[in-house]
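Tip: read the tokens left to right.
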């Protein structure tokens, strides 16, 4: 049985003697709404969550999950009114059933216009949260903020917020970016903390992925970060990387790659990403790297997690991945979905599928549903 190998530029050869298999969670045959002549019934997945305090319609997006203090914590985007976002908090004992724990209160002028899209990370026994601000409220003004907590609910802000945005010290955007940064994802590689984010090209039309890093021993203040993408994005939609195979199917990515979410396995770094804009439809792809900077798309460039079929809860999208590696080595992929064609329309909810690693060659696939993998 041969391994699948490729040659990263200036990195040497590494092999993929296994395939990443995503196991879709089954759905109990129960409608989420009472069946009537004005309601479209559908079968929700076993893990199906929306924050009841989010308005309108319990809209809940952008999940990020960690294990902290003997329980699971999920951070996500909520709406305090139809035009302003905040960060919601929920806890769970089993990854399936979640209890809302309130919202992260806004603090200071940098958060005055709302925050969203958190990326959570436990580092040195403390929970760190990286998230985007919309202040000042202009298209290119979004930037990455940082806060930390000893209990998962009460957070201390980094006094140098915002800490990361794709701009030079004088405030001028990098040549490849319009200067905004959203969808933060913090991930440890060696003695550095990598911070991935989504930006836009100078025209504001195409969403792309950039990154910075800081020493783990630093205070993670604004001056501690160095850019990893000074000359161009790490990933951009429908544009192959130097490591990509020659034939790819990238049309599904549309004009957007965003929401990077990282997980490691057998010495390799996997980046799950959302391709295409929300409801376009957005679906989830995956790429792999030896160094967290140079990536190769897997699955022939096709999405690893597609939107649902017509009539399902996630027909409009399966988007914004949140990869989570538990302390027992099991891995899960949280994501958001919605279906505005249902009656009544279903706004964004959150769900999850387990990730399984198999020592066989090949590419990602979607096998039969598997509930038992989540039994605890």
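Filled-in amino acids:
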């Amino acid at each position: 049985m041969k391994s699948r190998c490729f040659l990263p530029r200036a990195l040497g050869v590494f092999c993929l003697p296994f395939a990443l298999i995503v196991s879709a969670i089954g759905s109990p045959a129960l409608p989420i709404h009472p069946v009537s002549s004005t309601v479209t019934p559908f079968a929700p997945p076993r893990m199906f969550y929306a924050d009841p305090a989010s308005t309108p319609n319990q809209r809940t997006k952008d999940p990020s999950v960690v294990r902290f203090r003997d329980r699971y914590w999920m951070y996500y985007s909520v709406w305090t009114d139809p035009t302003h976002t905040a960060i919601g908090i929920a806890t769970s004992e089993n990854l399936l059933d979640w209890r809302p724990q309130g919202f992260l209160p806004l603090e200071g002028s940098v958060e005055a216009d709302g925050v969203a899209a958190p990326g959570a990370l436990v580092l040195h026994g403390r929970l760190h949260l990286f998230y985007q601000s919309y202040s000042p409220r202009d298209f290119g003004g979004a930037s990455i903020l940082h806060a930390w907590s000893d209990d998962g609910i009460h957070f201390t802000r980094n006094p140098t917020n915002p800490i990361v945005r794709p701009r030079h010290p004088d405030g001028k955007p990098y040549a490849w970016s319009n200067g905004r940064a959203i969808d933060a994802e913090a991930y440890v590689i060696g003695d550095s903390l990598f911070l991935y984010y989504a930006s836009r090209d100078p025209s504001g039309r195409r969403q792309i992925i950039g990154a910075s890093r800081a020493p783990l021993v630093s205070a993670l203040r604004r001056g501690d970060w160095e850019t990893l993408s000074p000359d161009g994005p790490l990933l951009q939609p429908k544009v192959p990387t130097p490591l990509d195979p020659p034939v790819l199917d990238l049309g599904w990515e549309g004009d957007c790659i965003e929401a990077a979410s990282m997980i490691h396995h057998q010495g390799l770094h996997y980046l799950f990403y959302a391709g295409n804009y929300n409801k376009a439809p957005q679906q989830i792809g995956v790429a792999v790297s030896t160094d967290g900077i140079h990536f190769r798309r897997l699955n022939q460039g096709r999405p690893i997690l597609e939107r649902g079929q017509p009539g399902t809860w996630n027909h409009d999208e399966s988007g914004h991945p949140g990869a989570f590696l538990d302390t027992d080595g099991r891995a899960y992929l949280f994501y958001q979905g919605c279906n505005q064609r249902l009656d009544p329309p279903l706004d964004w909810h959150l769900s999850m599928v387990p990730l399984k690693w198999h020592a066989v060659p090949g590419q990602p696939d979607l096998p039969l549903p598997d509930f038992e993998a989540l039994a605890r």
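The domain at 4-374 is CATH 2.115.10.20 (Tachylectin-2; Chain A). Residues 183 and 259 are 5 Å apart (CA to CA).
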